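Q: I'm writing a short methods note and want an example of a predicted protein-small molecule complex. Could you take the sequence and the SMILES for flavin-adenine dinucleotide and return the bound structure as tokens? Please keep the output block clean; save any remarks for afterwards.
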Amino acid sequence: MSSFTESEERQTLRKEVTKLAKTYGREYFTRCARNGEKTTDLWLAIGKAGYLGVNVPEQYGGGGGGIGDVAAVCEELAAQGCPLLMMVVSPAICGTVISRFGTEEQKQRWLPGICDGTETMAFAITEPDAGTNSHNITTTARRDGDEWLLTGQKIYISGMDEAKNVLVVSRTEDAKTGRLKPCLFVVPTDAPGLSFTSIPMEIVSPELQFQVFIDDVRLPADALVGDEDGGLVQLFAGLNPERIMAASFSTGLARYALDRATAYVKGREVWGSPIGSHQGIAHPLAQSKIEIELARLMTQKASALYEAGDDAGAGEAANMAKYAAAEAACDAADRAVQSHGGNGITQEYGVAGLLVAARAGRIAPVSREMILNFVGMHSLGLPKSY
Ligand SMILES: Cc1cc2nc3c(=O)[nH]c(=O)nc-3n(C[C@H](O)[C@H](O)[C@H](O)COP(=O)(O)OP(=O)(O)OC[C@H]3O[C@@H](n4cnc5c(N)ncnc54)[C@H](O)[C@@H]3O)c2cc1C
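A: Understood, no commentary inside the block.
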């Protein structure tokens, strides 16, 4: 990136993804969600075109690009009304962690399927009792000969029904200190002892969330990703990509909401001129345009820093981008509903459905409060508040 313009390559990527996403569009996405169907066709099409794993190294079936590329894919899909949460999870979190820390065998085993979409990987860290405080997770792995036995519970795990495997954040006992340390395991979603039930959510999305029960699931030694002692580092490595992707998910959604609102207010007339001519309508939409562009700029900065290897700089920027993008999306969705008047609440116009999807961005994968905690502590040097 230079002169505040993305590379020509990335701009072309955005255009190509937009073209593909338009052939599916919002109607397809909403129809799948309302009929309990999956967006597998779209997912596989993105994979086939090489966009899904665009950030994964080429030797494992990816595009050899950076996090900014896969974030651009996620944003453009959302901007066409197809916000795919599993983009955040499978290629960005799981793809990054395995690419960076997996053994050669693990990379060969799991990355090609993540890239072509045939072996989507879910990600499970959240637990009912630990919540935001992931230091308190209790899902535990204990050794049994050469194998592992994994036991615990997870909640709000996206896409368990679509994933072949799930990357589970758990803990093992440190042989020396007896303390529990985090580590990551790849678990097949059909493993004996693993079960999951869907949580009824109010989001209009084909992608569902699940409660996951892990009851003495037996895993081979090589299910452990990377190093048993390096779990925390590995986990942190997935956080910046996760935030950059979540920001892109939100800016894409915000752009979609704003496009819908703008098109509507240009055409709707109730006082002899389009309602968009009234500043009460135009100004909030202009405000959204500014907020979205600011969030996009910070997301692109975070991607550039991450790609340059500046993890600390990327951390601050990714948190700020994620915060700003979620706020921009919530406001844009709300303004889109308001601009549509009564039509904003109908299923026919499908705008109100954006409210909950945008709202989820303030909660997941990291809540706005935890970002404010981070910025208070790390950017402002305030005392830790929790
Ligand atoms: C649509 C959706 C998809 C998700 N997908 C996944 C997934 O695929 N995998 C996965 O592992 N998880 C997933 N999650 C879970 C998500 O990451 C958690 O919901 C989120 O981290 C918050 O945890 P919690 O729900 O337990 O909230 P809690 O921890 O109970 O927090 C409740 C509220 O209190 C606030 N709070 C808590 N502690 C503090 C503090 N110290 N200071 C200030 N405020 C605080 C929080 O910000 C929040 O607003 C998903 C959630 C949603 C909604």
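A: Remarks, as requested: The two ends are 37 Å apart (CA to CA). The longest strand covers residues 147-158.
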